[in-house]
Amino acid sequence: MAENKKVIRVGSRESRLAVEQTMLLLRQIEKSHPELTFELVTMKTTGDMILDRSLDQVGGKGLFVKELDKALREKQIDFSVHSLKDMPMEQPEGMPIVAFSGRGEVRDVLVYPRGRERWSPDCGRPFVIGTSSERRRLQLAAMFPEAEFSLIRGNVLTRLKKLDEGKYDAIVLAAAGLIRLGLSDRIDTYLEPDQVIPAAGQAILAVQGRTGEDYSYLDCIACESARQEAEAERGFVRYLDGGCSSPIAAYAVKEGELLRLRGLYYEEETGRYLTGELTGPAEEAEALGIALAKKLQASVGGRTSCGKVRPGAPLNACPAGRRTSCGKVWLVGAGPSDPGLFTLKGQKVLSEAQVVVYDRLVGPAILQMMPEKAEKIDVGKRSGDHPVPQEEINRILLEKAREGKRVVRLKGGDPFVFGRGGEELELLAEHHIPFEVVPGVTAAAAVPAYAGIPVTHRDYCSSVHLITAHKKRGSGETLDFDTLAKLDGTLVFYMGLSALGDICRGLVAAGMEEDMPAAVLERGTTAAQRRVVSTVSRLPEEARKEKIQSPALIVVGKVCSLSETFRWAEDRPLGKQRIIVTRPKKRSRKMADRLTALGAEVILLPAIETEPIGNNEPLERAFSQLETYSWIAFTSAEGVDCFFDKLYEAGIDIRNLSGIRFAAIGPATEKALAKRGIFAEVKPTVYTGEALGTLLAEQVGPGERLLLPRADIGTEQVTAPLLAAGIAFDDVAVYRTELSDGEGNGLDIRPEDIVTFTSASTVRGFVRMFPGLDYRKVRGLCIGEQTAKEAEQYGIQVIVSDRADMDSMVEKLLEIVK
C-alpha cells in the first residue's frame, strides 16, 4: 500500500519565472523531505494586470503579493514564494517571512535585440532603453546621457519579444531571472553594483507563512547570510519609506562577520539622489541599514556632487549628450603558469568576461579557461617581443570598456609587479572607466619555491628584493650594482636573461663575493621548468651551456644553495610531463585532478562537448512504454545522466523502473548508475561496445526487449551482435556529440606532450582544432582500439591503455614517463 504523503499547498504568481523560482525551492525541499509532496497554486496579481503604467506611477505597495496574502490568510495555501524585491517592506500581521533562500546573481543586465543591428551613435536617433523602474532609470541616465527611456512592462519573455521586434534598442532586466529561466545567453552586459545598485532583496527568494505553524522543513533552503543582507537592505529602504517600486536602492555583501552596505537615496522634492556605503557587524544588519539611510538623508540636501533628475520627469525625458561607459575593466594576475596558483577570484572574474586581453606570459592551462563566447585579443607580449605596443593595449582596454563590455586584462604573475598594470589604469582612470585589480601570485614567490629555493630563510637572509632588468625604452638608466651588492638579502631579477652576464659581472665588480650562490630558473611552475644553480661568477657560462631560454628568473643569494636539498616539483611521478585532456569539460575534472596530484601539468582542451537532445520524441515514446522493457543498457556516463535527467523532467517516478535489469559498459558508467541508486547487473570484462553487445545478446531472453539510450553518433559495435542474435531493442539517442569550434587558444602542441583521447570523436575534434599540425609528432594515449584506429588514420603516435578506463590510462602514463 502506498505511503500517504503530507500535501502542502504552495502559492505563486502565475508567470513562468515565478513558477520556475518556486519550483527551484520545492525541488530542494523534496530532496531533504521525501515524505512531503507539494501542490502548486498560481494566481495573477494586481501588478501583473496593470501593464500600461510604470510601477511608481501605479502607486501603492505590495502590488505583486496582495492576492497571495489573501489566499495565505484564508488558509487556501500553506505558504507562498516571492521574489523578495517585490515584497513590501512591512509584512501583514501574522504572515511573516519564514525563510530566505540563498542569493542568486544579483546584478542587473543590459539585453540587446537579436536579429537586428545594434544601435550606434551614427544611427541619427536616440538610444532607447526600455525599463519600468525609476531606480534603474536614475542610475542609467548618468551612464547614458544620450539615451531616452521608454516604459516596458510584462513578464520577461514578453519584454524580450518587444525588444526583438524593434521597440527598444536595449532593455534592463535582473540577471537572476534570465538565468533561472535558462536564458543566460541573452545577457549582453552585466551592470556592476557600483554602477547600478540593485533593488533591495534582488535575487533572493522569500517564503511567507503564517505565525504559529511549523515550517522547520524549510531549514534546508534557508540561508543566513542572505537573511542578514536582506535585513540590512530592507532596513535602509524601510527607514526612507520606500517600497518595491521605489527608486531607493540598497545592496549588502557579507564579508566574514561584517556587512558592507551600499545604498541610493532619492529625494523626490528636489530630484537629488546620493549614493553611499557603510560597513558594520552582520548581526546588526537592520541597524546598519538605518544608519546608512540617516547618513544619506542628512547629506543629500547639502551635497552638490550628487545626481539630479528633474522631479516628475517622464521615462523618455533624459537629456541627450555624450555617451559614457557602462563597461568595466579587471586587471587580473594569472600567476606564473600553474593553474593551481590562479586565484579563485581571478577564475571567477575570467569566467564572466566578455572580452579577454591577454599575453603569452599567461600559462596555457589558464588560457583554456577563457569563456568560449568571449572576444579574445592576443597582445602577444614575450621577452623582447611586443608586437602590440603598450599604448595600443591601453587603447584597446578603453575602447572595449566604452562598448559596455566586461573586460579582463589577463597578465602573467601580478599586474603591479613589473606588469605595467599602473600604466594601463592611468588611461582608464582619466576617462572614468570603472576598474578592479585582482592580484596574482608573483613569479618571485612561486618560481623559486618550485625550484626548492626559499627566498627567505632565517639562517641565510631576512629580506628579498625584486628588480627588473628591463630598461625603459629610450632610457639610459642602469642598475645600481653598488647598492644591490651590499644588500643582505635575496635578489630576484625579472626579465634579465639577455642581460645575465652584465648582471653577474656588475654585482661582482661592485664587491659581491664571486662564490655567492646564484640560479637561473626557466619556465618555473610548469612541466618544462629547468634550473641551473651555480655561483654568481659562473652562472652566465653554465646557463649558456644548458641553453636556458626565456621566460626565466634570476635569483642571487645564499638560499640558492638549498635548491638541491629542497627540490620537489620535478621529482613527482609526472612532474616533468605535460598532458592535454580532450574529454568534454564536464567530464574531465576528475581525470585532471588525478594527474595534477601526480605532478603533471594538465591542460584541459575539450575537443568535443555533449548536450542533451531536446524535444526528443523517441525518448518520450520509450518513457510511455517503460513497462515493455526488460533491459536498459548504457554505453557512457553521459547517457546515464541524460536519461535520468529527462526521466525526472518528465515527472516519471523512478520506481517505474522496478523489474528492469541494467547493464553498463564499464566502471565509469557503472558509477554513474550507482549515483542514481541503481546497480548494474551486467558488465563486460572488456569495456568495449562490441563486448557489451555480445554479452547482452547472450543475456537478453526470448520475448524480452532492450532500451539502449546513448549518443546520436553511437557506433554499430554494440548493435551488430544484437541484430545478429535477433534481439528486440530500441536504439534511442539521448545526447549529441559536437566537435569543438575552438582553435586551441594559441596552444602549441609540443613533441614531448601527451594528448589523451577517450573516444574517436575526441580525436576528430582535436584534428579540427589544429588543422595545420604535423600529427606524426603528436603522442596520443588512447582508450580502446576504436579510438586508436581513428588516431592512426592521422598518423598520430598511438599508445593504447590496457583497459578502457581512467585507472588504466593513468597506469599507462606512469609507465611511459619512467
TrEMBL record:
Query: Which reaction equation describes what this protein catalyses?
Result: 4 porphobilinogen + H2O = hydroxymethylbilane + 4 NH4(+)
| Alphabetical UniProt keywords | Methyltransferase, Porphyrin biosynthesis, S-adenosyl-L-methionine, Transferase
User: What start-end ranges are recorded for coiled-coil regions in this protein?
Assistant: none
Picking any one GO biological process from the record gives: protoporphyrinogen IX biosynthetic process
- Give the EC number(s) listed in the UniProt record: 2.5.1.61
Residue span(s) of domain Porphobilinogen deaminase C-terminal: 229-297
Miscellaneous comment in the UniProt entry for this protein: The porphobilinogen subunits are added to the dipyrromethane group.
Task: Cite the record's note on assembly.
Answer: Monomer.
Protein name, as recorded: Porphobilinogen deaminase
Give the source lineage, highest ranks first: Bacteria, Bacillati, Bacillota, Clostridia, Lachnospirales
